[in-house]
Specification:
This protein is mostly helical. It has helices spanning about 1-20, 25-45, 50-75, 80-85, 90-105, 105-145. It has one domain (about 1-145). Helix 1 (about 1-20) packs antiparallel against helix 2, helix 2 (about 25-45) crosses helix 4 and helix 5 packs antiparallel against helix 6.
Amino acid sequence: MELIQVLIGSFIASYAFGIIFNIKKRYLLVAAMGGMLCSLIYSLIAPKIKNEFITLLICSSIISFYCEAMARIEKTPVTSFFICSVISLVPGGMMYYTMQEIVMGNMNQSVIYCLSAIANAGAIAIGVSVAQTLLKLIGVIRRMR
């Protein structure tokens, strides 16, 4: 039951984020489905892999493949889907806690939160880079045949 609530919440959040970023109406559902898929993948992987960095890296790679496929099907830039799909992975909470600890004067704890947020954002970026590199490599191999 909790997973269903998470999926519905991520769908609504991704859809709303798409509206804020002026994504065309015909792409909003696909982008929101990407956000829901992202949350599903994260929810399934996170309990098995205890490392947050690896979990985010795998999840962002898979979502990048999804977004690339949808962009090719819909003939639109991949960012239209990726922005909405990956929003649930963005470490906004960690940045909030970083600022909260700074305001409270706990500099040691704020550094821990800040480094964790940077590592999480880096994992997302690396996952996207890995997926895009693999897609380009597959394209090159296909052209060589």
